Amino acid sequence: MQKNSVSRRRFIKTAGSVTGMVLGHPGLWAQQNENTPKTNIQDAMGVKRTAHSLPGAFPGRVIETHHPEAMSDNGLQPERVETLFHTGLQTLCGRTLQECFDLFFTVTDQVGIKVNPVGAGLISTRIGLVEAIIDWLTSCGLPRHQITIWDRFDYMLKDAGFTPERFPGIRIAGLQTMDEAAMQDKSGNPQRWQNSKGQHVSHDQFDQHVFYWADVQAPQDDNYLNQHVFNNKFSYFGKLLTQELTKIINVPVFKNTGNGISMATKNLGYGSICNTGRLHRPLFFNVCTEVLAFPVLRDKLVLNITDGLRAQYDGGPGPAAQFTTFYNRLFFATDPFALDRICHDLLVTMRKEKGIDVNEHPRFTQYLRYAEELGLGIVNPGKTEHIRV
């Protein structure tokens, strides 16, 4: 059911806003210097852009919706979350729900919803929010079988409740399988995750013609290969992205990773490719910008919705219950870099309010300014628009 149009809602407008190998370790972050490894970013930048290319329909624009009782210890309130979702979407686009759909999609699109399943049940993307997104898409004419909920690791999706039973008719897809047991006991037994050819069982799920190359050699041990599928200098994009999906909705969560954030750009930068462990130390932040510059993401990513219903302000990117709070907010943007810049500032404020020591060195946001230099987003506070509903 469509909620009241945005023209009937009142809002306040402000300018700007004053772990292991799977997740990456904040202590291994890259710092910008002359020794930053070379990458194939120029290959991406040389491809002509489309009408849907980043920063999308609303460069620099970020919408924040808030309801103090959307989620609490008593659980998530679906109707309130749906209202937050509808309000934010309509405020972003200045259109009705159907017109918002028509702006981004056609009924023939294959739409992928990228969730973040890390910290299942605590800080993972809320199932109720994803259900609201799917209800919107289907109410506007998109068949359920053309919707895919996806992440890099299949077992994480299951752990977070993204299953065919919970989402009938919706495809649930991990870009790769990982033998979690072998990773935990470090047995290194390749028979548990290799196929008959001696390759990782997920070898053929990645497109070896579409890749992010970085002059960084990967570790050669079996534990690394189990987790990362390849151990060369190439990080291949999943075939789901290169050959199947035509549009992407990105639904990260509001959380920190050290003094930086693990939100919109990291959800895709490290969630769309394999062989990422090698990238953390020398290129951490750059990956969040450069991977999104490739057409497979740049031209398909039409909407970002950061789930701030429960926020984590320290201990990230893995779950840390003692550092979470019911924030009860959703954030909307077509421009993921503007979104991350606004949310970074809000997280810094939250960390200070919670008594967390904060390092505000520019290196923690340099990747966002880099994105603006590449024409992928707007992050300059004087040019961004932050609307609180």
Termini gap: 20 Å
Q: Helix and strand succession? A: EHEEEHHEHEHEHEHEHEEEHHHEEHHE
- The helix count comes to 13
Q: Give the proportion of residues in helices.
A: 25-40%
Determine the structural class based on helices, strands and strand pairing: alpha/beta
Major sheet: 11 strands, mixed
C-alpha-based Rg, rounded: 20 Å
Q: Topology of this protein?
A:
Layout: E1 12-14, H1 41-45, E2 61-66, E3 71-72, E4 75-76, H2 78-93, H3 97-104, E5 111-115, H4 127-139, E6 147-153, H5 154-159, E7 171-176, H6 180-185, E8 206-213, H7 222-228, E9 234-238, H8 239-244, E10 247-251, E11 253-257, E12 260-261, H9 264-269, H10 280-290, H11 295-298, E13 301-312, E14 324-333, H12 336-353, H13 366-373, E15 385-388
Parallel strand pairs: 2-15, 5-6, 5-10, 6-7, 10-13, 11-13
Antiparallel strand pairs: 1-15, 2-14, 3-4, 8-9, 11-12, 13-14
Helix pairs in contact: 2-4, 10-13
Question: How would you sum up this structure, described in words?
Answer:
- With 389 residues, the chain is an alpha/beta fold.
- It has one domain.
- The protein is 29% helix and 21% strand.
- It contains 13 helices and 15 strands.
- Strands 1, 2, 5, 6, 7, 10, 11, 12, 13, 14 and 15 form an eleven-stranded mixed beta sheet that branches. Strands 3-4 form a two-stranded antiparallel ribbon. Strands 8-9 form a two-stranded antiparallel ribbon.
- Strand 3 and strand 4 form a beta hairpin.
- The longest helix has 18 residues.
- The radius of gyration is 20 Å and the shape is globular.
- The N terminus is likely disordered.
